[in-house]
Specification:
The chain folds into three domains: about 250 residues, DD-peptidase/beta-lactamase superfamily (Beta-lactamase, 3-Layer(aba) Sandwich); about 100 residues, 3-Layer(bba) Sandwich (D-tyrosyl-trna(Tyr) Deacylase, Chain: A), CATH 3.50.80; about 80 residues, no CATH class. The protein has about 475 residues and is of the alpha/beta class. It has a five-stranded antiparallel sheet with strand order 3-2-25-24-23, with helices on both faces. The chain has a five-stranded mixed sheet with strand order 19-10-8-5-20, covered by helices on one side. β11 and β12 form a beta hairpin. It contains eleven helices and 25 strands. α4 crosses α5 and α7 packs across α8.
Length: about 475
């Protein structure tokens, strides 16, 4: 359940509310013009622009209003993670056993302890299993016991948000997630059809490829006419690929899907990679807990937190954000609901930094939520605190650069303002948001926050670009 924070307003906040100055100040002319053009009223907008070194905003429009920020909420998760965990933090996945090794056989159970690593990949799992083989183990006589207890989370329904359970962005957090809970299907167009390749194909997953070529020649969006459906059995899952691909699509491309829950994906990849390494498993896979005195046989350590946050923010990865929030909760309140505990950690951290959290709602920390809320004022305070904080370089370097990389690589690409803005954007139905830093022509750097909640928000990209260009020209 979302955690709602409604502390008493400070005297300063009350003064702002009473005067109304910061709630409905005039918008920059280019922004106002763009909003009028697409039919969004100023009342659906919260905006704040402030020099990082100035005590007061240059522009503050309804900045106390709490709105849905979409993926801009990842800024909050990233900032708190850097403050609480530090830039050297890593996640560890450990393999251990109390059984002896004789004749290349592990004589008992093998324990795999998940540490909540959001960047655990099939490549790193392969290296972990190679290290296990280097211990002289070829056959596992017992069971493989997976310990996912590091995270305590309620059951996750990947269809709950938008009814699209196979979309990778809907995957939930899990202490033993592999490849963000998704598989990559390589589609290779040919003259007579389309080949579907998965390497490695998880054991227990069957691909039924029914994709056909269509007479259409234009290749604008190769995934537009493709569909995927899933049928689950007791031992195997069938993923059916259907639809048509225009004849104009001639180059291979990737289709990422999440057909398996975390436990089945981990088991499927473990079995497949272990088999390819010449290994055997006589037992079954089961969830359990790792004995505290089980000696470690091999372990895999994640990249450091700043590198993980770069992937999270540059490409707006929801699974990483869920993991980071759950990690905060798992560390601060072991045994409790990790996401809810992480939300409380966010509240305490922001308040300790003097950042107001009036009306803020933290759900999953990723912004893929209809309940998360935050004000432009809170985001601006956070960004200014981060700029003057010890982990400023790590946070700023995690943000997409307009016209250069990440989700903002196509923003302002042909504008003189390209490369001047480090900003996180957010998109949901009825929501467009943006927050970050802009270096102006004057040499001053500004915090910029813009959140729009309106049915026409889908057309608001030009509003965001108009704001960034206006600030860059200051």
């Amino acid at each position: 359940m979302p955690i709602r924070f409604r502390p008493l307003l400070s005297a300063i906040s009350c003064a702002v509310l009473l005067t109304g100055v910061a709630r409905a100040a005039p918008l920059p002319a280019p922004v106002d013009t763009s909003l009028s053009r697409i039919g969004i009223p100023p009342g659906a907008v919260t905006l704040l622009v402030q020099d990082v070194d100035a005590p007061a905003p240059r522009v503050a429009h309804r900045n106390q209003d709490v709105l849905n920020p979409a993926s801009v909420m990842k800024l909050v998760t990233a900032y708190v993670a850097l403050e609480r965990l530090g830039p050297a933090f890593t996640w560890t996945t450990r393999v251990s056993s109390k059984a002896g090794i004789r004749d290349q056989t592990l004589q008992g159970d093998l324990h795999v302890t998940g540490g909540g690593d959001p960047r655990l990949s099939r490549e790193r799992l392969w290296l972990l299993l190679r290290d296990l083989r280097a211990q002289g183990i070829r056959r596992i006589a017992g069971d493989v016991i997976t310990d996912r207890s590091y995270f305590q989370l309620p059951p996750h329904d990947p269809a709950a948000f938008d009814g699209r359970p196979l979309r990778p962005y809907n995957a939930g957090a899990d202490a033993l997630t592999i490849d963000y809970g998704a598989i990559r299907i390589r589609l290779v167009p040919g003259a007579d059809g389309v080949a579907a390749q998965v390497d490695p194909l998880p054991t227990g997953l069957d691909i039924d490829n029914r994709i056909r070529r269509s007479p259409e020649s234009a290749c604008t969006d190769p995934l537009a006419q493709l569909r995927a459906t899933r049928m689950e059995g007791p031992e195997r899952v069938r993923l059916t690929l259907d639809g048509t691909l225009p004849t104009g699509c001639r180059e291979p491309f990737d289709w990422n899907l999440s057909p398996l829950p975390p436990d089945r994906l981990f088991e499927g990849l473990f079995r497949r990679l272990w088999q390819e390494l010449g290994g055997e498993i006589q037992g079954r896979f089961a969830d359990g807990t790792t004995p505290p005195d089980a000696p470690t046989l091999a372990e895999s350590r994640s990249p450091s937190l700043p590198e993980v946050l770069r992937d999270m923010n540059k490409w707006s990865n929801n699974v990483i954000a869920r993991h980071v929030l759950a990690t905060l909760g798992a560390i601060d309140a072991p045994g409790q609901d990790s996401a809810s505990a992480g939300a409380r950690t966010v509240q305490r951290t922001l308040l300790a930094k003097g950042i107001t959290v009036d009306g803020m709602v933290v759900d999953n920390g990723a912004g893929l939520s209809r309940t998360e809320r935050i004000s432009a004022s809170t985001l601006a305070q956070l960004l200014r605190a981060a700029w003057h904080g010890r982990t400023m370089p790590e946070l700023v370097s995690s943000l997409p650069i307009a016209g250069i990389d990440g989700t903002a690589r196509k923003r302002l690409a042909d504008s003189p303002a390209a490369g001047t803005a480090h900003v996180k954007t957010g998109t949901l139905e009825g929501v467009r948001s943006l927050a970050g830093y802009v270096l102006a022509n004057s040499g001053h750097r500004y915090v910029v926050v813009l959140i729009i909640n309106h049915p026409n928000a889908g057309a608001a990209r030009e509003v965001q670009d108009a704001l960034l260009e206006w600030v860059a020209g200051l």
